[in-house]
Amino acid sequence: MSSYSDLPGSPQSPGSMSSRRVTNRNTNRYSVTALFSMAAEQDVEVEDELGRAQKRLRELKSRISAQSKRNFVLERDVRFLDSRIGLLIQNRMALDEQNEVEKHLEEVDATEGHYPDDRKLQQYSNLFFLLQSEPRHIANLCRLVSLTEIDTLLQTVMFTLYGNQYESREEHLLLTMFQSVLSSQFETATEFGSLLRANTPVSRMMTTYTRRGPGQSYLKSVLAERINSLIEHKDLNLEINPVKVYEQMIIQIEEETGSLPPNLPRGVPPEVASANADVQAIIAPRLTMLMEIANSFLLTIIDSMDTVPYGIRWICKQIRSLTRRKYPDATDYAICSLIGGFFFLRFINPAIVTPQAYMLVEGVPAKFPRRTLTLIAKMLQNLANKPSYAKEAYMITLNPFVENNKARINQFLNNLCEVGDFYDTLEMDQYMALSKKDLMINITLNELYNTHSLILQHIEVLAPNDKQHLRILTDELGAAPSQVPRKENRAIELSLYSRWETPIQDIQSALMDSVSTTDMLYMEAKSNLVQLIRSLPQINDKRPYNLSQLAEHAATSSKDATLVRKGIKVKEMLRELEEYKVIDQADGYRLMQEEVAAELVHLGNLREKVILETKSLEAVYKTICDHNNYLRGQLEQYKAYLQNVRLTATKDRGATSGVGVVTVGGKEKKAAKPIVHGPYRFTHAQLEKEGIIVESNVPDNRRPNIYFNFTSPTPGTFIIALHYKGREKAILEMDLNIDDLLEKQKDNKHLLDLEYVQLNVPKVLTLLNKIFAKR
Predict the structure, then answer these.
(1) What 3-state DSSP class applies to 195?
(2) What is the structure's pLDDT at 125?
(3) Are residues 205 and 72 in contact, defined by beta-carbon separation less than 8 angstroms?
(4) Is the peptide bond before 544 cis (omega within 30 degrees of 0)?
(5) Quick check: bond before 242 cis, omega within 30?
(6) Domain-ending residue, one of 397, 416, 435
(7) How far, in Å, CA of 190 to CA of 184, rounded?
(8) Using an 8 Å Cβ cutoff, are 756 and 696 in contact?
(9) Do 521 and 573 contact (CB within 8 A), yes or no?
(10) Does the keyword Coiled coil belong to this entry (predicted)?
(11) Is the dihedral of CA 376, 377, 379, 380 positive or negative?
(12) Within 13 Å, how many C-alpha atoms sit on residue 313's CB side?
């Protein structure tokens, strides 16, 4: 076996470029511990309990990353369809626009479509390695594209190019891109007040980043319990808007007395409502309770400092750093308002206001808790950002909460920024990436072609010099292919590798210039010994470890060929280290023995951490999957609605050629009589269990006798009838049109009032779709 001291100090040409990069590093920058972890990453997988737990965790993280991307795509489709639904409702959508809507409802057929040829794939592999490894190109592109193009690009950037959300290299590269984009935003800012507030591609990027797996995991662990305990109190009314309080008060008086006294007219202006003594008496205790609840939310968030995802904290750090440089005279209060604008406005508050959209709660909260959550979010926003009471003067009454917590929130926002940088580890990760043979991304054809097209549109800005790598690759690729039909938009696994770097054969040759040969040999021997002990459970319990016997046992007694090779390798390494006088057999290699034992203790503790993290992420994965099902349900509703629109259009066209007559193939035929579907019967208990009934005024003892009939007399129209057992006639009937329900959903009006019960609109739509769509 060749001696490790014979390894060259630097690789020969054509690897001279790699060698030069290593030489430029600060000598001995990396500790042996850091190098050990990097070497271990390169080693064969060990199948002990820790290894199996780590494998499960890696697979789970991979599934979360993939599912997050699917959800992002679905959310974008739902947003598009929401924007078109108004036209559908008003029946003003042309046939080609209906076809465009239909495309967003098509499933991808994995058997259709085509792969680019091998030469093109290789060129795309080089291009996307360059884009991933040098984030400045994507950062520049994000600044150049229009607001209408940003979502498609963000899908590729956040969930494909840097889609492995738990892998340090990709995460750090993505954050480097953010740094570049934010720097540009600050450079071009004309006034302090406009920074990061407008709806721009940059603000959209920041919001999208918070929706990745780690951000969702944090929101669930920190907010879910607090929100769920609040929404249990369905009847707790904490409204403090004097106009609304006044209206609620006079409605109650009228219900109780049958009339209104003359001194309480309807429709009074805010100043009259505010001056009413009874209104003031109602609001006073509510203010106290609101501030107590907001305080509990604030304390929970402040206590969660250590669990805030690193990337979100690092973005806060960049905002603070850039603000200090751009506006050296800015006060700490003003700087914290910008940090708070990102952390609360873009991350925390959307989850508080619409917890159902973040899957923090089951179903839509009832009316009163929903309003309370909105007020809590406003209070936190006013605390973290510069408060503005121009539109809602009544919020001034909550100013004590802002004043009492201002110093505390500023301290928290500053502490958020106290995280280390990652440039040293990223430099090493980037270098190591050159040696990886399995670096790949999962990307759809349309993502591939769209990114190619956007780069070509802006190539003169991105790479003005024809000797630049990006320019060379795009020149070779030529024109971007057109987008394929959605049905043919297959996903492909694209291997990434650099065209201009020679892959590193092993970690030794990569680091030889910055770490001594003996340090490297010592580190690798220790790494191999740890792996041998982990792979031989019968030896793991024997302390202290006899390292010579361990290597001999693996080399001669093991039935596993990999362990035999590793045992022989360790024996040779121990012999060489003795020759260098780094270790001594006379003391049983005491130094190495102690470090191996300490490493195994660390790995034992690591196993517990891995198992805990896996449990936490399993809950996140379930949440993301639930959200995916919710989005799919919405798309199904749109699909059913589109079908009804077309049926109605056909019926209308038939009406123009005569009552009850439609034209088919140039011949007039009598239209078929509409078929009535239903009634389909559901009990009060069934609808309550499914979350369709959100609130009920029916007394508990009467609920077993209540049932509901759902009927569809014509496509797109429904009747919900509330019945009491033993009575022939319905107590209450409501005629519904699917247009009305979809419009309610679009406008975030999630409750349907049936006088005795209030129903959840999205779940009613899902139920109607389930029982009537295919009939």
Answers:
(1) coil
(2) 92
(3) no
(4) yes
(5) no
(6) 416
(7) 12
(8) yes
(9) yes
(10) yes
(11) positive
(12) 19
Report how far residue 733's alpha carbon sits from residue 727's, in angstroms, rounded to the nearest whole number. Answer: 14
Looking at 416, 440, 461, the residue that finishes a domain is 416
Helix (H) or strand (E) holding 217: helix 213-231
Angstrom distance (rounded) from CA 617 to CA 622: 8
Q: What string of DSSP letters covers 302-345? A: HHTGGGS-HHHHHHHHHHHHHHHHH-TT--HHHHHHHHHIIIII
User: HSE on the CB side for 284, CA within 13 Å?
Assistant: 7
Q: Is residue 182 part of a domain?
A: no
Report which residue type is found at 512: M
Q: Is residue 83 part of a domain?
A: no
Domain count, the chain: 2
Residue 684 maps to a domain:
yes
3-state secondary structure of 735: strand
Distance CA 314, CA 329 (A): 23
SS3 of residue 679 by DSSP: strand
Residue 316 φ then ψ, to 5°: -60, -40
Report which secondary-structure segment, H or E, holds 246. Answer: helix 242-257
Q: Which domain holds residue 366?
A: 216-309+357-416
Q: Is 200 helix (H, G, I), strand (E, B) or coil?
A: coil
* Other CB atoms within 10 Å distance of the CB of residue 426: 17
pLDDT at position 665 = 40
The answer to whether the CB of 759 falls within 8 A of the CB of 694 is yes
Q: Which two tokens stand for residue 216?
A: 């969702």
SS3 of 464, please? Answer: coil
282 within domain boundaries: yes
Question: Distance (Å, rounded) from C-alpha 413 to C-alpha 305?
Answer: 10
Burial of 760 (0-12, 13-18, 19+ CB in 10 A): buried
Torsion on CA atoms 118, 121, 126, 131, rounded to nearest 10: 180
Angle at 166 between CA 528 and CA 354, to 5 degrees: 155
Q: State how far the Cα of 531 lies from the Cα of 562, in Å rounded to an integer.
A: 11
Which helix (DSSP H) or strand (DSSP E) does residue 40 occupy? helix 32-42
Cβ-contact 738, 85 below 8 angstroms: no
| Dihedral-angle region of residue 726 (phi above 0 means left; psi in -120 to 50 means alpha; beta otherwise) | left
> Tokens 């060698």 map to which residue?
19
- Whole-model pTM? 0.63
Amino acid identity, residue 577? L
SS3 at position 667: strand
**Residue type at position 588:** G
pLDDT of residue 592: 84
C-alpha distances in Å from residue 395, one per residue of 402, 403, 689: 11, 13, 37
Name the DSSP letter for residue 543: S
Q: What does the CA dihedral 6, 12, 17, 22 come to, rounded to 10 degrees? A: 10
For residues 32 and 518, the answer to whether their CB atoms sit within 8 Å is no
Q: Nearest 5°: phi and psi at 511?
A: -115, 5
Q: Which two tokens stand for residue 375?
A: 């007020």
Whether residue 733 contacts residue 721, with contact meaning beta carbons closer than 8 Å, is answered with yes
Mean pLDDT for each consecutive 10-residue tract of the chain (775 residues)? 32 32 32 43 60 81 79 74 58 50 56 73 92 87 83 83 78 84 78 67 81 85 93 91 91 82 84 91 95 95 93 90 85 90 90 87 87 94 77 86 92 90 66 64 89 94 91 93 83 84 50 57 80 74 78 83 86 89 85 81 73 80 81 77 61 43 42 73 92 88 92 84 89 82 74 87 84 66
Alpha-carbon distance of 494 to 131, in angstroms, equals 13
Give the closest residue to 430 by CA, choosing from 38, 32, 15.
38
Distance CA 604, CA 608 (A): 7
Is 716 within 8 Å of 642 (Cβ atoms)? no
φ, ψ at 680 (rounded to 5°) = -110, 130
Q: Residue 538 to residues 43, 200, 529, 542, 547: CA-CA distances in angstroms?
A: 22, 60, 14, 8, 14
Contacts of 118 (CB under 8 A, 6+ apart): none
Give the CATH number of the domain where residue 290 resides: 1.10.506.10
Closest CA to 113 of 495, 484, 494: 484
d(CA 466, CA 475): 9
